[in-house]
Each structure stands twice: as C-alpha cells, then as structure tokens.
Amino acid sequence: MKRASGSHILVNLYTRRLAYFEGDRQVNLYPVGVGKAATPTPTGSYVVVVKIVQPGGMLGTRWMGLSIPGGNYGIHGTNNPSSIGGYVSNGCIRMYNHDVEALFPKVSIGTPVEIIKGTAGSKQVNLQGNPGAGSKIHVVQAGENLWAIAARYDTDLSLLLETNKISNPEIIYPGRQIIIPTEM
Fold it and tell me: What does the record give under GO molecular function (predicted)?
C-alpha cells in the first residue's frame, strides 16, 4: 500500500503525545513516554533512518531510529507499559507495543519527525517558546517551503533555520509554526 504524500510525525514533549499526519490531516494520536530531565528528548526536525522488527528487551516489538546527531534515539515499543505518559526515558520516545505496531507499517524510511516542547492547551505550538519582541509567527501552508517564507519576510534563510532550530530546510509541513526573527 502506497503511503500518502506528505506524511509526518509530530511529538509534543509537553503533552507527551505523538501525532501521525497524512498531509495536513491528523490520522492518529498516541500517548508516549519521553526523556527525563537528566536525559531529555532532543527537539528539532529529523527523519526516520532505520526500522527494526522485534529489537527485543526494553525496546519492545518495534524500533524506528531517528537522524538525531550524537546519539542513538528512536521511537520504539517498551517492556514497561506503565512508563507511557511519563518523563522516563534516556531520550527515546516510548510507545505501547500495540500502538507502535499500528504506526510502524505507515512509516517509511525518510518520514519527517518533528519533536517540539509544546505548550498547554494549544493546537498550534510555538516550537521555541515565545518569539522575541517584534518577531512574527508564520504558520506553514500547503505547498510552502522555507526559501519562499524567508523571501516573503525578507529574512536570511540561515537565520530562519537557526531561530527555529531546523536542521533540514526541506522538512517542514503544513501547520508548523515558524518564528520570523527581527534583525537587531
């Protein structure tokens, strides 16, 4: 079965939820366990780089490794289901085994994964907290890219990437909030 164009995963560390999107439509929402204070889950834009069935032990029944530099981070099942919903891991994103088994076939190598800090009670989440004084928020629309957004606001692409902690400018999706920095 062909995967819908534009599918992506959004992980909100505040709500401890993982959302799976096809295009701009949220298809599934799952509770997750994320990194504890001493070993937080890194925020940013990544992609799935490896998928493993039955990795075993604490990784549960499925592993989807992420392109996070400097570590071996992933989305995986767990042998400790009571940890779901908490700040409990060494930085990985834990799911109930039945949830990761449902998500696994929908996700391909290269699927974008956005990990955000999030906020309480907000559908649209500002990735980096409050923008600086005079900064604006731009909500990405279908078909937009960061080059066009930078041109629209007459800002430098590298400044846009740095402000929003985006490592790959090709990984954005509709509904994502982008902070448009003001020049000092």
Answer: glycosyltransferase activity; peptidoglycan L,D-transpeptidase activity
